[in-house]
Automatic annotation (TrEMBL):
Its EC number is 2.1.1.233. Pfam families: LCM. Belongs to the methyltransferase superfamily. LCMT family. The keyword Cell cycle does not apply. This is Leucine carboxyl methyltransferase 1. Keywords: Methyltransferase, S-adenosyl-L-methionine, Transferase. It catalyses: [phosphatase 2A protein]-C-terminal L-leucine + S-adenosyl-L-methionine = [phosphatase 2A protein]-C-terminal L-leucine methyl ester + S-adenosyl-L-homocysteine. Methylates the carboxyl group of the C-terminal leucine residue of protein phosphatase 2A catalytic subunits to form alpha-leucine ester residues. S-adenosyl-L-methionine binds at R55, G80, D148, I149, E175. The lineage of its organism: Eukaryota, Metazoa, Ecdysozoa, Arthropoda, Crustacea.
Length: 312
């Protein structure tokens, strides 16, 4: 069941999916699956499209390094996955994993599941679908569960139903999710992972540098749309982002703001390509946006696998 105030958070999924569709339609990256989940969208501003490109390309670069390191003998848990098409994109690029689990609030997962059932290419014939309305689906290597990560015990029970193995390398991804949770709730969730999994890596994408004037404006704009950033305190700086993991029992953490990722760390050839897609008038606004988002990573390495190769 959703809590009061969840509607605005749930709506952020539609926003993200539509922005991604806008960029995909223009050729920023290839995603033949998204159109089955998001049919219509309006064209977004060039700086929004470029920002989403950096987000998707940055996160995917690290995900593929993780999967390659373990030759796919690993698990992936996509927290607050929304309408993400990552599972199918990884299948297509040859980056299959043993087990892929998506978690989101039941309202979102039930909508996604009902859309998936209508699309032949995305439908899994082996999906277990008890009843016509369901917020959970289980296939051999792909699971979608409707759970609120503020309720760690519920998440644990639902993950057990996905045959999660806490002893093998597990990648957690949260793309614009933790910022909507209070620090108490996100800390509890991160502590649960740290005390449960032996070998885990976390990729977190969300806001950073929220204490400056532009950051304060971002908080105000979202607040005016009914969406409070309850976790803003962990998004004040890259150090605050890293600190939240170290405080929650993780062994190490690292982070980059998206301006650094875009300007210095993504392949120059790709940046040259996407910069030819649309003319960008206001370069300053793009830099402002990119400076206020980041990717942070953290690791738990009780098996001494050494995660140092999973960086930009
Ligand atoms: C901004 S959207 C991002 C969706 C997807 N990760 C992406 O980037 O395209 C945030 C997602 O987090 C989910 N979310 C927020 N709070 C959550 C919670 N407490 N438990 C599970 N999911 C949550 C929302 O329902 C929404 O789908």
């Amino acid at each position: 069941m959703s809590l009061p105030g969840d509607e605005a958070v749930i709506a952020t999924n539609d926003d993200a999916a539509q922005c991604k569709k806008s960029a995909v339609d223009l050729g920023y990256w290839v995603d033949p699956f998204l159109g089955s989940l998001v049919r219509h969208t309006s064209r977004k501003l060039p700086e929004i499209n470029r920002g989403y490109y950096a987000r998707v390309a940055g996160i995917e670069t690290l995900i593929k390094k993780f999967i390659d390191k373990f030759n796919g003998k690993c698990q992936l848990v996509n927290i607050g996955a929304g309408f993400d098409t990552l599972y199918w994109r990884l299948q297509t690029s040859g980056h299959k994993v043993n087990n892929y689990i998506e978690v989101d609030l039941p309202t979102v997962t039930s909508r996604k599941i009902s859309l998936l059932k209508k699309v032949k290419e995305l439908h899994h014939t082996e999906f277990v679908t008890p009843g016509s309305f369901t917020c959970d689906m289980h296939a051999k290597d792909f699971h979608i569960i409707g759970a609120d990560i503020r309720k760690v015990h519920d998440v644990q029970i639902k993950m057990d139903a996905c045959n999660i193995d806490t002893s093998i390398p597990t990648l957690f991804i949260a793309e614009c999710v933790l910022v909507y949770l209070s620090i108490k709730d996100s800390t509890e969730f991160l502590k649960w992972i740290a005390s449960t999994f032996k070998c885990a890596f976390f990729i977190n994408y969300e806001q950073v540098n929220l204490s400056d004037t532009f950051g304060e404006m971002m908080i105000r704009n979202l607040h005016d749309r009914g969406c409070a950033l309850a976790g803003a305190d962990a998004c004040m700086s890259l150090d605050a982002q890293k600190h939240r993991f170290l405080e929650s029992g993780w062994d190490g953490a690292e982070g980059w703001d998206m301006q650094t990722v875009y300007a210095n760390l993504l392949p120059k050839k790709e940046i040259d390509r996407i910069e030819k897609i649309e003319f960008l008038d206001e370069k300053e606004l793009l830099v402002q946006l990119l400076t206020h988002y980041c990717i942070s990573v953290a690791w738990l390495d009780k098996l001494n696998v050494d995660f140092s190769c999973i960086r930009f």
